[in-house]
Amino acid sequence: MKRRKSTKQRPQVGLLGKELTRRSRGRCELCLGRDDVRGFELAPWPEKPDAERALMACHRCRSWLQDGAIEPIEAHFLSTAVYSTTTPVRLAAARLLLDVDSPENPWLATALHAANIDPDTGEFRDSA
Ligand SMILES: [Zn+2]
Questions:
Q1: For the chain, what is the domain count?
Q2: CA of 37 to the centre of ligand 1 (A)
Protein backbone atom coordinates (compact mmCIF):
# COMPACT_ATOMS: atom_id res chain seq x y z
CA MET A 1 0.00 0.00 0.00
CA LYS A 2 3.01 2.23 0.52
CA ARG A 3 3.42 4.93 -2.05
CA ARG A 4 7.04 5.60 -1.28
CA LYS A 5 9.99 3.43 -0.54
CA SER A 6 11.64 3.42 2.80
CA THR A 7 13.90 6.46 2.79
CA LYS A 8 17.19 5.76 4.43
CA GLN A 9 18.85 9.02 5.31
CA ARG A 10 22.13 10.10 3.70
CA PRO A 11 25.11 11.35 5.71
CA GLN A 12 24.84 14.84 4.17
CA VAL A 13 21.80 15.52 6.34
CA GLY A 14 24.42 16.38 8.98
CA LEU A 15 25.19 19.57 7.03
CA LEU A 16 21.83 20.91 8.14
CA GLY A 17 22.46 20.23 11.81
CA LYS A 18 23.19 23.78 12.89
CA GLU A 19 20.33 25.39 11.03
CA LEU A 20 17.81 22.74 12.08
CA THR A 21 18.92 22.85 15.69
CA ARG A 22 18.43 26.61 15.76
CA ARG A 23 14.97 26.32 14.22
CA SER A 24 13.81 23.43 16.41
CA ARG A 25 15.69 24.37 19.59
CA GLY A 26 16.75 20.75 19.78
CA ARG A 27 13.25 19.31 19.88
CA CYS A 28 11.37 17.07 17.52
CA GLU A 29 9.52 19.51 15.25
CA LEU A 30 6.55 17.15 14.98
CA CYS A 31 5.84 16.07 18.56
CA LEU A 32 8.26 18.32 20.50
CA GLY A 33 9.85 15.23 22.04
CA ARG A 34 13.52 15.14 22.93
CA ASP A 35 14.31 11.48 22.41
CA ASP A 36 17.32 11.09 20.08
CA VAL A 37 16.43 14.11 17.93
CA ARG A 38 18.16 14.21 14.52
CA GLY A 39 17.77 15.80 11.13
CA PHE A 40 15.55 14.04 8.60
CA GLU A 41 15.34 14.88 4.89
CA LEU A 42 12.04 14.56 3.09
CA ALA A 43 12.14 12.76 -0.26
CA PRO A 44 12.77 13.57 -3.02
CA TRP A 45 16.01 15.08 -1.87
CA PRO A 46 17.47 18.15 -3.53
CA GLU A 47 21.07 17.78 -4.70
CA LYS A 48 22.29 19.77 -1.73
CA PRO A 49 20.55 19.27 1.62
CA ASP A 50 18.05 22.07 2.17
CA ALA A 51 16.48 22.97 5.51
CA GLU A 52 13.25 23.68 3.62
CA ARG A 53 13.05 19.96 2.81
CA ALA A 54 14.16 18.69 6.19
CA LEU A 55 13.19 18.74 9.84
CA MET A 56 14.35 17.68 13.25
CA ALA A 57 12.59 14.54 14.40
CA CYS A 58 12.78 12.25 17.40
CA HIS A 59 13.44 8.55 17.24
CA ARG A 60 9.77 7.59 16.97
CA CYS A 61 8.86 10.22 14.38
CA ARG A 62 11.87 9.32 12.24
CA SER A 63 10.92 5.67 12.25
CA TRP A 64 7.36 6.60 11.30
CA LEU A 65 8.60 8.79 8.46
CA GLN A 66 10.87 6.03 7.29
CA ASP A 67 8.59 3.02 7.55
CA GLY A 68 5.07 4.43 7.58
CA ALA A 69 4.05 2.24 10.54
CA ILE A 70 2.17 4.89 12.48
CA GLU A 71 0.40 4.22 15.77
CA PRO A 72 -2.84 6.25 15.47
CA ILE A 73 -3.21 6.32 19.22
CA GLU A 74 0.14 8.11 19.56
CA ALA A 75 -0.34 10.30 16.52
CA HIS A 76 -2.68 13.03 17.72
CA PHE A 77 0.13 15.57 17.78
CA LEU A 78 -0.02 15.44 13.98
CA SER A 79 -3.26 17.39 14.04
CA THR A 80 -1.26 20.27 15.55
CA ALA A 81 1.81 19.76 13.38
CA VAL A 82 -0.16 20.13 10.12
CA TYR A 83 -0.68 23.77 11.08
CA SER A 84 3.03 24.42 11.55
CA THR A 85 4.39 27.59 9.94
CA THR A 86 7.47 25.61 8.95
CA THR A 87 6.76 24.09 5.52
CA PRO A 88 8.77 20.85 5.86
CA VAL A 89 7.17 20.17 9.25
CA ARG A 90 3.73 20.63 7.71
CA LEU A 91 4.68 18.33 4.85
CA ALA A 92 6.09 15.63 7.13
CA ALA A 93 2.94 15.74 9.28
CA ALA A 94 0.73 15.52 6.20
CA ARG A 95 2.63 12.51 4.86
CA LEU A 96 2.36 10.75 8.20
CA LEU A 97 -1.38 11.41 8.23
CA LEU A 98 -1.65 9.76 4.83
CA ASP A 99 0.04 6.71 6.28
CA VAL A 100 -2.21 6.35 9.30
CA ASP A 101 -4.20 3.29 8.50
CA SER A 102 -7.51 4.13 10.16
CA PRO A 103 -9.42 6.70 8.12
CA GLU A 104 -12.48 6.22 10.32
CA ASN A 105 -10.89 8.49 12.93
CA PRO A 106 -12.70 11.85 12.81
CA TRP A 107 -9.64 13.79 13.94
CA LEU A 108 -7.72 12.23 11.10
CA ALA A 109 -10.19 13.36 8.44
CA THR A 110 -10.07 16.92 9.79
CA ALA A 111 -6.29 16.96 9.96
CA LEU A 112 -5.93 15.53 6.45
CA HIS A 113 -8.24 18.17 5.10
CA ALA A 114 -6.14 20.86 6.77
CA ALA A 115 -2.96 19.29 5.39
CA ASN A 116 -4.12 19.79 1.79
CA ILE A 117 -1.81 17.08 0.51
CA ASP A 118 -2.15 15.12 -2.70
CA PRO A 119 -2.11 11.40 -1.81
CA ASP A 120 -0.71 10.47 -5.23
CA THR A 121 2.35 12.71 -5.15
CA GLY A 122 2.87 13.16 -1.43
CA GLU A 123 3.21 16.91 -2.03
CA PHE A 124 0.91 19.80 -1.22
CA ARG A 125 -1.88 20.52 -3.63
CA ASP A 126 -1.40 23.83 -5.39
CA SER A 127 -3.55 26.37 -3.66
CA ALA A 128 -5.62 27.88 -6.43
ZN1 LIG B 1 8.70 13.24 17.49
A1: 1
A2: 8
